[in-house]
Design a protein that fits this description.
mainly beta; 7-stranded parallel β-sheet; 14 strands
């Protein structure tokens, strides 16, 4: 299928482990610093249509996992991630199957500025689930789960330290 791959690593002890199968995908990863680890899996066990995954990490000791369509056929997914700082942990799962209208996609857009933040997002079900998270600060923990056939949007902007946020949408 139609793949575009652009990986840039600057620094030392960066690790990328990825498996890309499926349909039209654009994968851009830029890691800068040291001790960054990234695992990207797209379309394992099924097709993953029209995906675009863009990831930028700056700092050290970041851990990022992105899975698309590992347990079910995934519809469209547009996942963007920007992490600035160190010791950030981000896990994104886009395992949903959806019938979408037009150019609509399942969007996950996470921007972190600070250190020691942990983010877990999961999209399940046939709905067009969009997650937009922008956090400035340190030691924040975010858990966002969107499930069901109805379309949902989480658009969250926070700043400060020590946040503990859990959002669960299920219909």
């Amino acid at each position: 299928d139609d793949h575009t791959l652009d990986i840039d690593q600057i620094g030392s002890t960066n690790t990328i482990s990825g498996e890309v199968t499926g349909d039209t995908q654009t994968l851009t990863i830029h890691q800068e610093g040291d001790s960054n680890t990234s695992t990207v899996t797209v379309g394992t066990n099924s097709s993953a249509d029209d995906n675009s995954i863009i990831q930028t990490l700056t700092g050290s000791s970041n851990t990022t996992t992105i899975n698309v369509g590992t347990t079910a056929a995934s519809g469209d997914a547009d996942i963007e991630l920007t992490a600035t700082g160190d010791s950030n942990t981000v896990t994104i799962n886009e395992n949903s199957t959806a019938t979408m209208i037009g150019d609509d996609t399942k969007v996950t857009d996470i921007t972190l500025s600070g250190s020691s933040n942990t983010v877990t997002t999961t999209h399940l079900g046939a709905g067009d689930h969009d997650t937009i998270l922008s956090h400035t600060g340190s030691t924040g923990t975010f858990s966002i789960t969107q499930d069901g056939v109805n379309d949902t949007t989480v658009d969250l902007t926070t700043s400060g330290s020590g946040h503990g946020v859990t959002i669960t949408i299920d219909d």
